[in-house]
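It is worth pausing here to work through a concrete case rather than discussing structure prediction in the abstract. The textbook approach is simple: state the sequence, then state the predicted structure, then interpret. We follow exactly that order.
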Amino acid sequence: MNNPFIPRLVYFEPKALDYPLGEQLYKKFKKMGIEIRYTTSHNQVRNLPGENDFQKYRVAKSTLVVGIRKTLKFDTSKPSAEYAIPFATGCMGHCHYCYLQTTMGSKPYIRTYVNVDEILDTADKYIAERAPEITRFEAACTSDIVGIDHLTHTLKRAIEHFGQSEYGKLRFVTKFHHVDHLLDANHNGKTRFRFSINADYIIKNFEPGTSSLDQRIEAAGKVARAGYPLGFIVAPIYLHDGWQKGYFQMFEHLDAELPLDARDDITFEFIQHRFTKPAKRVIEKNYPMTKLELDEEKRRYKWGKYGIGKYIYQKEQEEDIKSHLYSYMEKFFPNAKLEYFT
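Step two, the predicted structure:
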């Protein structure tokens, strides 16, 4: 994916135009000649163009709903942060394995919220409650916020807001390389900019509509040179022919791009591939030709905290993944911190 996301269709919720960002986006999309519709609520977004579910799903993934975040109670976001900060939901990527497949269900369109001041004020209250402890906020729990920020600049505002905060920190992760507008933000080291990276095989086969590994790593180099603390999520770690070599080359590529002075504060998060029964049903419906291995018989079952268990790799395979990826990380980034393996 080389070009930044441009929606095919934009819906505005009633009060969205009362906010400066809502008005700004309206003018921007009008000027671009994008079809604009109005809806009483995002739940009423129906009758999307398309002759069948398959087509409608794809139109929905390129539809943007501009609205207001009504629930200002933040969800927790372990293990990555204390809270999820809600600037957007949904994603324009088409990653076959993505957990948003099931959480977004029949509403895979993208939503962006225009009441940014209210969201940031709420974050400040959470920070005040926990001070002097540090409170971290994850901005990419339910979306790839970088994927739409060239349109909204909400993330840039948030980065600068947290840059002024004594006890608050921001973090997010992306599969997109459209980062240039974020490089001059006054982050003051308070935002950890993370990239989701993977072996080439996984990106090419299971992550359509996202940036290539080369593009992500090049963007990570730019972000490192802009002084941001950097992080990488390797997910989902997926066993395929030649996986050891694929992940070794990924680390090698990263090593070649990152400047030396950025290496003392790098974090990694390792997440092995998993799926649930409901997710499998949705994946097979939305991506009927997928080569993703979803065979329960080959996996072990792990109970989930919400009562829905997931299928993960067998213990022996998990140990194999761990030993290989740990050794690559130690070889190329001996000072990096592994935040978790799950």
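Step three, interpretation. The chain has a mean pLDDT of 93. The CA atoms of residues 263 and 334 lie 9 Å apart.
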